[in-house]
Amino acid sequence: MNEDYIKRINTILLFIDKNLDSELSLEIVANVGFYSPFHLHRIFKAITNETINSYITRKRIEKTASILLHQKNISITELSLQYGFKSNSSFTRTFKKFYGISPSEFRKSKPKYSKIRQVESKNGQENGLSDDYICNIDNLINWIKMNAKIEIKEMPKLELAFITQIGPEGLGNAYAKLMKWAVPKGLLTENSKMATIYHDSYKITEPEKVRMSASLILNEKTEVSGEIGLTTIEKGKFIVGHFEIGIQEFEKSWTALFIWMNENGYKKADRNLFEIYHNNFNEHPEKIAIVDFYIPIE
């Protein structure tokens, strides 16, 4: 796929993320990427495997699902109007197509969709937490006390170069491309840090549709082109869990960190989760990953 096409679609994806509660007609979105509406239809589907209208509808429904999980006060009618649905009944019909239940039933069934039951992991896989974990939350709390250093940090704004990856398959290839680009520019040193930003949540998005940014944290202004883009992680407050773990322990670590968050009375903010890696676990003699997990909080 032409790298310029990918760059322009990246711009469109970021625009949609920021404007889900605004008008997103085909003409408006096409103008953002300097496409004609006809060409946007064709190129967007070729890159994302979804039509532009289907993508926008899905992102809006997933946004409302996230709000239903985390905000008790907002009404379903308010949500339907805020995110572009003409009526409450239209919103309910569309929501049921995605989740099989109505928005009100979804809100009542919150434990089923809780981050404690379904977690986002480094390898992009999501597995429902077993009954043993649910029954042994205390064990997870004790485990994380012994295996992690947890801090509340005010993080500065981070600048990153990134490649978009949709779905977990191919994330490794995205990092390989990013490193191939960075090495000749002298951007990849022994102090460089890679990061994965999650733009979607595995608990409400089908795994093959989850969008991630395979990223390199930048220490200087850098020009990019083609499929390499620039993005930022805005400054803010985060729960930061520092782990030295095997790859098979990523799920357990994310789960325990969210339990720690809930147990300590923190509330996740409406910003993206991310991971920062401090080593290449393949180069560690015991295949240990040294990694920080970041949960944005209010």
Mean pLDDT rating: 88
The helix/strand order is: HHHHHHHHHHEEHEEEEHEE
Distance between the termini: 40 Å
Rounded to the nearest angstrom, the radius of gyration is 20 Å
Q: What characteristic shape results from the CA principal axes?
A: globular
- The count of strands amounts to 8
Structural class: alpha+beta
CATH class membership of the largest domain: Alpha Beta
Low-confidence segments: 111-134
Strand order of the largest sheet: 1-6-8-7-3-4-2-5
CATH topology of the largest domain: Multidrug-efflux Transporter 1 Regulator Bmrr, Chain A
Q: What CATH architecture label of the largest domain applies?
A: Alpha-Beta Barrel
Give the topology.
Elements: H1 3-18, H2 26-32, H3 37-48, H4 52-70, H5 76-82, H6 88-99, H7 103-108, H8 110-113, H9 131-135, H10 137-147, E1 148-155, E2 158-166, H11 171-182, E3 194-198, E4 211-217, E5 229-233, E6 236-246, H12 250-263, E7 273-277, E8 288-296
Antiparallel strand pairs: 1-6, 2-4, 2-5, 3-4, 3-7, 6-8, 7-8
Helix pairs in contact: 5-6, 10-12
What do these coordinates show?
The structure is a single chain. The protein is α+β, with helices and mostly antiparallel strands. It contains 12 helices and 8 strands. Helix content is 42%, strand content 20%. About 8% of the residues have low confidence. An 8-stranded antiparallel β-sheet has the order 1-6-8-7-3-4-2-5. It folds into 2 domains: 110 residues, Arc Repressor Mutant, subunit A, CATH 1.10.10; 150 residues, Regulatory factor, effector binding domain (Multidrug-efflux Transporter 1 Regulator Bmrr, Chain A, Alpha-Beta Barrel), CATH 3.20.80. 30% of the residues are buried. It starts with a helix and ends with a strand. Helix 5 crosses helix 6.
